[in-house]
Amino acid sequence: MKRVAVFCGSRDGHDPIYMQKSKQLGEVLAKHNIELVYGGGIVGCMGAVSEGVLENDGKAIGVIPEKLLTVEIANEALTELHVVETMHDRKAMMARLADAFIALPGGAGTLEEWFEVMTWAQIGYHEKPCALLNVNDYYTPLLQLFDHMIEQGFVDQLNKDIIMMQEEPEILIEQIMKGL
């Protein structure tokens, strides 16, 4: 596994654990010589994960739409920074560059980006791992929603089963590497 795309919030969240675990994920990626592919910003969890990578001599590749250059404040210290025209271009480039996908806590944008690549895995467009870092039980309600969708007949159990989820960055990365 050469690169992991990380989808995450451009905010810090209310509990400091979100920023701590984001930075820790970056540190773990660097430790395993796995390059980070992410949204390219220096704010929120995005900034923390890239900081964890860069402070540990890792490589970080940012992909940011022109419109968000000042909102998410592009990180000029990255190994590579790709400025693209649209969010669609961002997602396509991140998907192309990555060997696996992880969602850290975030908002609607984080969920939308992760659900797109997860849906692609479900329908066979790729076989790359799709994972959730379940910091502070952030994604536990999402898995409960999957159970509800299965119960109601809109999702098959095998679609839920492709989701990897752990609470600790090191364990999640090890799980992803074993799954490849």
UniProtKB/TrEMBL annotation:
It is an enzyme of class 3 (hydrolase). Keywords: Cytokinin biosynthesis, Hydrolase. It comes from the Bacteria. It holds the Pfam family Lysine_decarbox. Belongs to the LOG family. PANTHER family: LOG FAMILY PROTEIN YJL055W (PTHR31223). This is Cytokinin riboside 5'-monophosphate phosphoribohydrolase. It comes from Alkalibacillus silvisoli.
